[in-house]
Amino acid sequence: MTNKPNILSAILIMIVMTLFAGLATASEKTVTWGSLTEPETLDPGQAWDNASVFFTTNIFDTLVVLDSETLEITPSLAVSWKTNKNGTIWEFKLRKDVRFHDGSEFNADSVVFSFQRQMEKNFPYHYYDFPLFNEIFDNIVSVKSVDTHTVVFHLDQPFYPFLATLTASPAAIVSPAAVKKYKKAFARHPVGTGPFRFQLWEKNKRISLRANPRYWEDKPQIDQFDFLVNDKHDNLHKLFREQKLDVIDSFSISRATGLKNVRWATIKLIPVLSVTYIAFNLENPYLKQVNIRKALRSAWDQRTLRYVFQGFVTPLDSIIPKGMPGHTTPKTSLKLNLAEARSWLQKAKVNKPLKLRFLLSGDSDLLRQLVSLYAKNLNRLGIELDIVNVPLEEYEKRIMNGDFDLTLNGWAADYPDPHSIISPLFNEELMQKGLANLSQYRDARMKKLIESLTKEMDKSRRIQKVADIVQQIDALSLCIPIFQDTTAIIYNNTRIKNIRVTPTDTIRLYPIEKK
Which of 92, 352, 431, 500, CA to CA, is 20 to 30 A from 78? Predict the structure, then answer.
C-alpha cells in the first residue's frame, strides 16, 4: 500500500503562497497571520466585532492609549491633558508634525471632525450609524478646536471614566480628506495616522497592512502583515504546523492543546477585561425569590471550567473581572455546595420538583457541555434543567420577550473602567435588544449608586462605590459570574517575538519584531 499526497492540502498551500506572492520583497520583514474571521468594517466608528477592532486599532490612533502592562492611560495623539474640578471640561494638547497616511495634516480640526461625524446626524459626512459611539459618548455636548493643536471636550455632567473611553475604537481619529473622498466606501478604504497603512482587502481571502514609514513613534519593525482568512480551524492549524503561517489567532481548544509540546510554537494566554455569567429571568415567579437564586448559585461548580475549557478561560467569582479596578473577591463562596443549596431551597419552601429552561444561542458544543454538567448538579437537588439551543436571531427575540429562565451572557469592556461592565448590566435598552442582563432588577438604591459612580472623581471613593454595587449583586445573587475570557495567540517563536495583547482584547502589531 502506497501513501498518496493530500491533494486538498497541496492546493490550499498553493493558494496561500499565491496570495502572498509579490506582496513583499525578500529583503523585507513580513509576517503571515491566519484568522478564522475577517472584519465587518475598517471604519473605527462602526467597529464593534473583534476582527474589525483588531484592524482599526493598528490603522488608526486615538488621543490616548491603554498601557497593557500597567493599565494606565498614556499619551498617543494627545501629549497632555487637563480637566476642570468636576470633570465636565477636558482640554487636550495634540502632538505636532503628525500626518495621516494620505499625507494630510493631523490637527485639532481632524479631531473635531472625527467626533462630529458620529455625534451629529445632520453633519454632511455622517454616512451611516455609529451605535457604539452613541452608547459610550452620549455625554459629549461639544468638541471644539481652540487652536491648531488644542481641542476641548464639553460634557453634560461629570464623568470620571471619560479619559478611559477615549481609548475605545470610536474615539480613533480619521482623515477628514479620506472620509470626504471615499464617503460610504471609507469603511473599505481606511486612512488614519497609525503604525500600519491599509494596503488591500480581498473579501474572504486576505488583508494586507504595510508599515507607516512616517509613523510618529518611529517606523514599525515589521514591513508587512499578510492576513489569510480561512473559515476552517483544521486548515489554519495545518498551515501553522507546516510553518506556512507565523501566527494564528483562531483555534479550537483540542487543536491548540496538541501544540503545547511543539518546541517552536508558543501559546500566549492573556485574560481580557470581560465577564461571562449565568443570567436569571427575574420576572419568573420562582427566580424572583432570592433564596432560589442562592440555591442555583450554590450548585455551580467552577471545576467544570477546567474540564471543559482546558485552561483557556479564567474562572471568575465576581462580576468585575480580574485586573479591572474595583475587582474584589465576594464574601459568598462560589464553590459547589449542594448541602447549602438544599438549605436555601428549604427556606424558599420549595416542596416540589422545579423545571427550568436554560436558553443557549448558537451551536457551541463547549458551552452546551458546560451547562449539561451544571444541569447534573441541579438534578441532584430535584431541579430539572431543560437546555434549549436556538439560532442567534431567535435567541434575541426570546430574551426580549422574557421567554427563558436562565441563559449565558457577558461582554468585554469597551474601555478599562468598571463602568464599562456595570453600566450594561442594568441597561433596559440593551435588554430590549436581546441582551440578557440584570435590568429586570429595579431598586432605587442600586440606581442611585450607579449614577453616583459616573460622577465620583475621587479614585478611592469611586472604588468603594464599585465594591458596594458588586456586594449588592452578590448578596442578592442577581447572577452567577462564571468566567473571564482569555485571548490566545499561537505563534512561531523562532520567527517572531513581542506579541502583546491589551486587557481590552486588542492586539497591537507595532511592538512585534522578527527574530
Answer: 500
What is the dihedral sign for C-alpha 359, 432, 160, 412?
Answer: positive
pLDDT at 332: 65
What tens digit of pLDDT does each residue of 151-178 get?
999 999 988 899 999 999 999 999 999 9
- Which conformational region is residue 216 in: left (phi greater than 0), alpha (psi within -120 to 50 degrees), or beta? alpha
Longest dimension (CA), the chain: 81
Residue 419 has pLDDT above 80, yes or no: yes
Give the separation between CA 489 and CA 205, rounded to whole angstroms. 20
Alpha-carbon distance of 56 to 190, in angstroms, equals: 8
Domains assigned to the chain: 7-56+180-269+487-514 (3.40.190.10), 64-178 (3.90.76.10), 274-485 (3.10.105.10)
Q: Give the integer Cα–Cα distance in Å for 314 and 364.
A: 18
Distance CA 22, CA 122 (A): 44
Measured between alpha carbons, how far is 140 from 133 in angstroms, rounded to an integer?
10
Instruction: Identify the burial level of 1 via C-beta atoms within 10 angstroms of its C-beta, where 0-12 means exposed, 13-18 middle and 19 or more buried.
Output: exposed
Which region, left, alpha or beta, applies to residue 437 given φ > 0 means left and ψ of -120 to 50 means alpha? beta
Per residue in 488-502, pLDDT tens? Answer: 899 999 999 998 888
Average confidence (pLDDT) over 356-369: 90
Cross-strand partners of 30: 224
What would the grid cell of residue 146 be? 481652540
The 10s digit of each residue's pLDDT in 240-257 is: 999 999 999 877 787 788
Which regions of 102-222 does DSSP assign to beta strands (E)? 140-147, 150-155, 196-202, 206-211
Task: Using the predicted structure, report yes or no on whether residue 3 has a pLDDT greater than 50.
Answer: no
Q: For the whole model, what pTM was predicted?
A: 0.85
Which stretches within 32-158 are classed as H helix? 50-59, 108-119, 131-136
What is the C-alpha R_g of the chain? 25
**N-to-C CA span, the chain:** 42
Between the ranges 198-202, 305-309, 450-454, 483-487, where is the mean pLDDT highest? 198-202
Q: Are 358 and 406 in contact (CB under 8 A)?
A: yes
Please, how many CA atoms are within 13 Å of residue 368, restricted to the half-sphere of its CB?
A: 11
CA geometry: angle 346, 351, 357, nearest 5 deg: 95
Q: Are 77 and 60 in contact (CB under 8 A)?
A: no
What pLDDT, on a 0 to 100 scale, did the predictor assign at position 24? 52
State which amino acid sits at residue 422: I
What is the helix (H) or strand (E) element at residue 308, kind and residue range? Answer: helix 303-309
